[in-house]
Amino acid sequence: MESLYIVIPAYNEEENIESVVDDWYKVVEDTECRDSRLVVINDGSKDKTKEKLDELKKNRPMLEAITKPNGGHGSSVLYGYRYAIKNNADWIFQTDSDGQTNPDEFEAFWKMRESYDAILGNRQGTRQDGKSRVFVENVLRKILKIVFGVKVKDANAPFRLMKRELVEKYIGKMPENFNLPNVMLTTYFAYFHENIAFKTISFKPRSAGVNSINIKKIIKIGIKAVKDFYYLKKHIND
Questions:
Q1: To the nearest 10°, the Cα dihedral for 20, 21, 24, 30?
Q2: 203 - beta bridge partners?
Q3: pTM above 0.90, yes or no
Q4: DSSP character string of 45-80
Q5: Which of its termini does the chain have fewer beta carbons within 10 Å around, N or C?
Q6: Kindly report the CA angle at 127 between 71 and 91, in degrees rounded to 5?
Q7: Per the structure, how many domains does the chain have?
Q8: How far apart are the C-alpha atoms of 228 and 185, rounded to whole Å?
Q9: In this predicted model, what pLDDT tens digit does every residue of 171-196 receive, in sequence order?
Q10: What is the domain-level CATH number for residue 80?
Q11: Segments forming the whole domain that contains residue 188
């Protein structure tokens, strides 16, 4: 049976983490592969996220709760991907810890794995997390078209199932703690014409807690991202 590593970054999610773990742990169990894991990367949370994860782990043998110094969402995602690669996962799935994605939609992705090397979530038309977020994603997609010449339906959806070998093929092209790894993985997949598919998913408002990203941070990240994109385009064939 094929192993699945579900990678979930978490920062100050004490209000969400128990329900998120419960929901996604069932998905890992359903693979019926003893080597599958739910990997939660606690990104130096200042609340009780770590304590809750430690408690949850006591009776969930397929849960890996890893705490690392705070480095941001992107560094946590990359940490989880490298962990899955190191442990020879067959498939890597990434989602977030804010309760905005629906675990019930995973099965359809899992069934598609025999036909594709990556199945990526598409939130276009289903997002319920605010017009500003939709605007940012649309601008991002246009920037990727200008810089890399790729057209993607959703660049950064935190709902993606990927073969380990595919992630391993491209992860080294990014800086170690790159802040938008999913964007660049989507871009590389499209640029190099990998066998991928986009599938529509639902995307709910955050269920609890406070989003650590605001418009000011988005603008700052965006300016840096454009510079990074041009640098990565220059070295895309390295």
A1: -150
A2: 127
A3: yes
A4: -SSSHHHHHHHHHTT-TTEEEEEE----HHHHHHHH
A5: C
A6: 55
A7: 1
A8: 14
A9: 999 998 999 999 999 999 999 999 99
A10: 3.90.550.10
A11: 4-234
